[in-house]
Amino acid sequence: MAARRIELMLCTGTGCVAGGSFRIKKALEEEIARHGLQSEVSLVPTGCNGFCGQGPLMVVEPEGIFYGWLRPEEVPFLVEEHFLKGRPIKKLMFVPRERKEPVPLLRDIPFFKKQKLIVLRNKGLIDPERIDDYLARDGYVALEKVLTSMRPEEVNEEIRRSGLRGRGGAGFPTGLKWSVCRNEPRTPKYVICNCDEGDPGAYMDRSVFESDPHSVIEGQTIAAYAIGASRGFIYVRTEYPLAIKRMRIALQQAREYGLLGENIFGSGFSFDLEIREGSGAFVCGEETSLIHSIEGKSPEPRQRPPFPAQVGLWGCPTVINNVETLANVPVIINRGADWFSGIGTETSKGTKIFSLVGKINNTGLIEVPMGIRLREIIYEIGDGIPGNKKFKAVQTGGPSGGCIPASLMDLPIDYESLIQAGSMMGSGGMIVMDEDTCMVDVSKFYLQFTNDESCGKCTTCRDGSAALLEVLTRITNGDGREGDIEFLEELGMAIKDASMCGLGTTLPNPVLSTIRYFRDEYEAHIRQKRCPAVVCRGIISSPCQYMCPLHTDVPAYLTLIATGRFKEALEVVRRTNPLPIICGRVCMAHCTLKCRSKESGEAIAIRELKRFLTDWELESGQLPEISPFPRRYDEKVAIIGSGPAGLTAGYSLAEKGYEVTVFEKYPVAGGMLALAIPDYRLPKKLLQIEIDVIRQAGVHIKTNSPIENIDALFDQGYKAVLIAVGAHKNRKLEIPGEDVEGVIDPITLLRKVNLGEEVPSLGNRVGIIGGGNTAIDAARTALRLGSKEVTIFYRRTRSEMPAIPEEIEAALEEGVRIEFLVAPERVISEAGKLKGVEFVRTKLGEPDASGRKRPIQIEGSEFVVELDSLLPAVSQDTEIPPGFGVEVSKGKAVKVSNETLMTSRDGVFACGDAVTLPTDVTTAMAEARNAAELIHKYLRGEKVEREYKLIEPSIRVEPIELEAEVSETTRPIMPRVPPEQRRNNFDEVELGYSREVAMKEARRCLRCDWEVQEMREKAREREIGVEA
Amino acid sequence: MPKLTLDELRKKREEARKSIYLREGEFKGKIIVHMGTCGIAAGARSIVSAFLEELEKSGAKDIMVTTSGCAGLCSKEPMVTIEMLDSPPVKYVELTPEKVKKIFREHILGGTTVAEYALGIGSESGG
C-alpha cells in the first residue's frame, strides 16, 4: 500500500451543500478515478469551513490551498492541472477586494487570520461522519481524563475557574450552573443540549453539529458526569436535517465505541443521549419552554425561579447548555482553566462564534477572541462593506439584541459591553447594515418576527409586540405622529418589565436601541415624511422622484417619453421644475443615485432624457407661450442673486401673485449658471431662453445691481427679502507660499471666460487641485484656452470624486490627466512667480465613524511638480459684504433656521449656496421653492414653518405594456463631439439622444412607483370604506 | 462492534492520527515530481507511486509528495526536486522506481544527496 499525497477537504456544510458541493463531490470522484489517482488523492467531506460566502469551497492539503466558488464543470480541469500535474488553479483561488493577485493558501487569507479556533478547532479538518477523524484530533481525550482522574467536583471547579459563560446569549457562568445542579439532592438529573437556534441569520450551532458533532457529545457527557446525570437530550430544530443526520451518526458511533452507554471505560459512569426534534418555534429556545417541549407539553415558558438546575425536566434538576458552550468543555479540560481564562476580557473568557452576514464582503462563520473590536471584525475579517458603501450599524443578538452604530466601532465585544451598548451577545448573529439600511425598517422586521413568534402567554409580549409593530408600520408608511417615539419607548420598557421569559423581555431591544442611536431617522420618518436610507416603500413612491430635490415625477414622464407623448412629459417636468433646459444639462442627477435599475445594470439616463425633451421642444419651436402671472397681492419681494435659486424663487413667488425683483450684482443674469459653468456644458443662448421664460412670467431681473445692505431694500418698499446669492469667492488651499503670481482663482477665471473678458495666460503646464465639478470645469477650460498639459490632483481616488462621473470621463477623453491620492504641501516660487508645487502621496486609511476613508499622508513620499499655473478648486465662500445686515458664519454662509429659512432678521430669508455654500443646481432650486412658500406664509401672516408632505406621483400614468422583455441593462451612450474636435473651442460637447434612442431608454424604467401607487390607493379605499 | 477498552481507544486514536497527518502535519521535506506532459510521457506517474510506496513503508509523516510542471529539461525526465528543510534543493534526473528507493533511503531519510543521480546541487526550486 502506498501513502496518499493529497487530501481534498471539501466543505459539506449546509451552505456549501446548497451551493452544490455534493455535485462537486461526485464530479471530483469521477475525475480522480478517470486519472487513476484514487490511491494518491483522497476526498474528505467536512463540515462548515466558515467562509460561507465563497462556497462551495474546498481546501487542498497538505499545502492548504483554498478554492472557492467551485462549479462541477471546472472539476476536470482542476483535477488534471492541479492534482495530476501539480499546477494550482489561480482562477479558483480567493482574491481579496482591492487586490489583483489571488491568495493561494487558506492561512494567508485575511478572513481566517484574526480568528482563534477553540470551538471550531476541527472545522474543515475532519469528516464529521467518521469518529476516527475526531479521535485523531484529541477526540475524547478530555472524557478519558475526566473519567479516569477527576472527581465531578473537580470538573465543576475547573469549568468555574475557566470563566466559561453560556454561549446561548445570556452568559450565565457555566460552572455555577453545573454546581447548583450537582448540589441538588434529588435524582435523576438531566443534561440538555440546546440546539434550537432560531435567530434570523445565525447558524453557528448548526455548523458545530454539522462539522464536529462529537465535540458536543463529549462536552455533554462531561457535563453529565459533573452534575451526576445519566440521561441527556439533544434538542435540535427539525429544520436542520443535515445536522440531525450527522448527530445521529455520531451518537451511533460513540455508542459503538463505548463512549456512550453503560459503565463508560469501566468507570462506573453511565450516560446516554437522545435527540429530540423541535418543530421550530422561536420560543422553544427559551429553556423552560424547551423543557415543556421535551415533556410533550405546549412550549410556553414558566416563571423562574426555580431554575431548571433546581427544578427542570420532569421536575428534576436539569442543566441546559447551548451547543457552543458544550463544545468548549473538552478543550478546557484538556488545556486547563488557566489557559482558557487567559483568552478574552476581564469578564468574558474564551472565544465567541459569530455568523457574519448582511452587507459585508466576506460572509461566513467566524470564531474570535472575546474583546475583539467591531472594527476588526468588519474591516479585517469581513473586508468591509460591498460597493464601498458606508458601514452604518450591526445588529447583534438577533431579534433579542440591538444595533450597535458605526460610532461604537472600537467597542471591545464582550457580554457586558454589548449590554451597555443596548444590545446583547445573543447566540452570535451579526448582521451588518450599510447606509442603505433604514433602521426603522429593521426594527419593524424584528418586531414582525417576535410578534409572530410570541407564544402568547404574557399579555405584554403578545399584545405589546403587536402594538409596537403597528406603530412602526405606521411610521414606515409615512403616517407617523408626534409622540410615537415616546410611546415606543414607554411601551418597550413596559414589555421588558412585565414579560416572563427572554423572548418578551428582549423583544423591544431592536426598537429601543435603534431609537437610542438613530432617533433622527425616526424623527425624519415621522416629521418630515422622509426615509433617509430610501427604503420604506410606504414613504418612497419611487427612488427617483424621492431623491430628486424638486421631487419631479420621473416615472410618469419616462412612460410618457416611452409612448411618444413628449409634450405631456414636459408638462409633468415643468410642474416642479421651471428650468428643464438647464437641468437637462447640468443637474447632478440625484434621481439616479438609488434607481432600482442599478440592481441589474445601470440607472436610467434620466437627466439625458429630460434634456431630450427640451431638445425636442426647441427643435419643434413649440416653446410654451408664457404670459405674466396675475398679481394677487400688493407686497413686493426682493431677491438678491439671479442664480438657479433666485430664478426659481422668483418664478414661484410670481406664480403666487407677488411682484418680484431680482437684483444681480454681475452684468448678466444666471449666477453660477452663467458665470461658472462653461459654455461647452451649458450654452449661453439656451440659458438665456429659460431666463427669458422667468422674465416673461413677470419676474423683474436687474443686472449690475449689487446690494450692499438689506435696509436699502426695505427702504424701497420691499416687504420681504430672499438672499439667494451664490458662492463666488474661491477658497484658498491654506498651504505655504500660495500667494504668488501664477496661482489663479478658477472661479474668477471661469467668470472671465464666460463674460468674454480677457484672461491671464495659464501657460502650458496647468495644475488643478480638487475633485469637484469646478475642478473639472477649470481643467477642461484650461485645455480650451490652449494649455497643453493639464493635470488634476486629488487626494482620494476616482470613486470618491464628487464631480459628475460623465464630466470626469469627458475630461479624461480630452486629455486631462488626473493624479489620485496626492495632496499639495507647499507652493514653490521664484521671485514671486509660481515654479511648482510640492505634493505628498496619500493612502486611504481606516474609515472614520461616518464610514468614509480618510486620506493619510505617506511620510517621505513628497515630490515636486513644475507648473506654470495652479488653480485651487477646493471650495468657495459667499461674497456677502460686511454690514450686510444678517448674521453669517465662517465662510460667510447666511445663518437661517432650517424650519423657516428665515435669517437673523425678520422678513429676510435665505436659501441655496448662500446658506449651504456650494452644492448643486437642483438642491438650490428646491430650497428656493421652499423659501418662496415660507415667504408667502410670512407675508400672509401665517405661521412660518416648513411643511412636510408625503411625496406622491403628480399624475397617474399607467405603465406601458411591453410586448417583449427589455433586454438592455445599460444606458445608451451619450453622443459627444469627438475630443479632437472639441478641446479647442467652447461649443457644446454633448449632442443629446435621438428620438428613437430616448424612447427606447425610457422603456427601461421599471416603474417601481406603480406598486406603491396601487398600495396607497387600496389603503385609501379601505379608509373610505370602498370595497376593493 | 464491541465496546472499546481504554487501551483500545488510545490505540485507535494513535492510528487515526497517522491517517490525518496531511491536514495538520509540519513538513520537513518536500518531494516535487515534475509532471509536465514530458514528465508524464517519460513515466513520472510511476515515480510518484514509487515515492508514495516508500513513504508508506517508512512511516514518515513529515514528508510531502507533490507535483509540479515541466522543469525545462524534457530530455532528462522523469525528474524530481527534493527540498529538505535547511538545505538547498536537489534535482534528480532520468529516474526509475529503483533509483527512487535509493534516493528515498539515502537523501530523504539519511540526509545525504545521491550524487550519481543528481543534476546539480543548489539549482532553483522547481516548486
Chart the SSEs and their pairings:
The complex is a heterodimer of chains A (1028) and B (127).
Chain A lengths: L5 E6 L2 H5 L2 H14 L6 E6 L11 E4 L3 E3 L7 H10 L25 H4 L17 H6 L4 H9 L2 H11 L11 H10 L6 E6 L8 H8 L1 H15 L3 E7 L3 H16 L15 E7 L8 H8 L23 E5 H13 L1 H5 L9 E8 L5 E6 L4 H8 L9 E6 L5 E4 L9 H6 L8 E6 L4 H15 L5 H18 L7 H15 L3 H5 L2 H19 L15 H5 L6 H9 L3 H11 L3 H7 L19 H15 L15 E5 L3 H13 L2 E5 L8 H4 L8 H13 L3 E3 L8 H5 L2 E6 L5 E2 L15 H10 L9 E5 L3 H12 L4 E5 L11 H10 L2 E3 L2 E9 L2 E15 L5 E5 L5 E4 L2 E4 L3 E2 L30 E3 L2 H4 L4 H19 L39 H4 L12 H9 L5 H15 L5
Parallel strand pairs in A: 1-2, 5-6, 5-8, 6-7, 9-13, 14-15, 14-17, 15-16, 17-28, 19-20, 19-26, 20-21
Antiparallel strand pairs in A: 1-3, 3-4, 9-10, 11-12, 11-13, 18-27, 22-23, 23-24, 23-25
Helix pairs in contact in A: 2-3, 6-10, 6-13, 7-8, 7-10, 9-10, 9-11, 10-13, 17-18, 17-21, 18-19, 19-21, 23-24, 23-37, 24-26, 25-26, 26-37, 27-35, 31-32, 32-33
Chain B lengths: L5 H14 L1 H4 L4 E6 L2 H5 L2 H15 L4 E6 L11 E5 L5 E3 L4 H13 L8 E4 L6
Parallel strand pairs in B: 1-2
Antiparallel strand pairs in B: 1-3, 3-4, 4-5
Describe this structure in words.
Chain A has 1028 residues and is an alpha/beta fold. In chain A, the strands form 7 sheets. Chain A has a 5-stranded mixed beta sheet, covered by helices on one side. In chain A, helix 26 packs antiparallel against helix 37. Chain B is built from 5 helices and 5 strands; from the N terminus they run H-H-E-H-H-E-E-E-H-E. In chain B, a hairpin with a 5-residue loop joins strand 3 and strand 4. Chain B is elongated and about 60 Å long. The termini of chain B are far apart. The C terminus of chain B is likely disordered. The interface between A and B is large, with 39 and 38 residues.
